[in-house]
Amino acid sequence: MTGLVLKLGPHERVLINGAVIENGDRRSRLAIMTPNAHILRLRDAIHPEQVNTPVRRVCYIVQLVLSGDADPTDARLQLLRGIEQLSQVMTDAESRVHLTTATTAVLENQHYQALKSLRCLLPREERLFAAGAS
After folding, report:
1. Rounded to whole angstroms, what are the CA distances from 89 to 33, 103, 121, 134?
2. Which residue from 15, 29, 56, 96 has the fewest beta carbons nearer than 10 Å?
3. What pLDDT score does 134 carry?
4. How far apart are CA 88 and CA 50, in angstroms?
5. Domain boundaries along the sequence of the chain
6. Which band of pLDDT confidence, cut at 50, 70 and 90, is reported for residue 5?
7. DSSP state, residue 108
8. Residue 104 parent element (H or E)
9. What is the mean pLDDT of residues 94-112?
10. From CA 5, how far away is CA 35, in angstroms rounded?
């Protein structure tokens, strides 16, 4: 994660290598220079009871890697399988771009980028479920 820049709003929290850090009263930017640091914005965190859809499940696995609760090597196969399963359903061009980016990020151990790409699929998944319920 060398060179990752986090832009934090006032009082926003972030988990870095197991420590919760809260920003002060003003917006700020943090440059993360340590390679392979475990970083997770708490506003982006998915709680276990919210893991109720395929995209959320894959996002949660990435989140566990980012929080340091799962080994990246152990999670890799699970993530790649999950992304492959999503690609069977999400066949539109925009979803494919996000899935390809997520796959590349997982293969390069860039889990923050993988989570960022996968989170873009959450609104699409919600629309698919809503259309299926109709």
Report:
1. 37, 16, 12, 18
2. 29
3. 63
4. 23
5. 4-43, 46-133
6. confident
7. T
8. helix 93-107
9. 95
10. 13
The pLDDT value given to residue 43: 86
Q: Which residues pair with 13 in a beta bridge?
A: 22
Q: What is the 3-state secondary structure (H, E, C) of 18-87?
A: CEEEECCCCCEEEEECCCCCCEEEHHHCCCHHHCCCHHHHHHHHHHHHHHCCCCHHHHHHHHHHHHHHHH
- In angstroms, rounded to a whole number, what is the distance separating the alpha carbons of residues 8 and 95? 27
For residue 17, how far is the Cα from the chain centroid?
A: 16
40: which residues sit within 8 A by CB, 6+ positions away?
Answer: 14, 15, 63, 66, 67
Give the sign of the dihedral formed by CA 47, CA 132, CA 103, CA 121.
negative
Phi/psi-derived region of residue 3, left when phi > 0, alpha when psi is between -120 and 50, beta in every other case: left
Residue 120 has pLDDT above 70, yes or no: yes
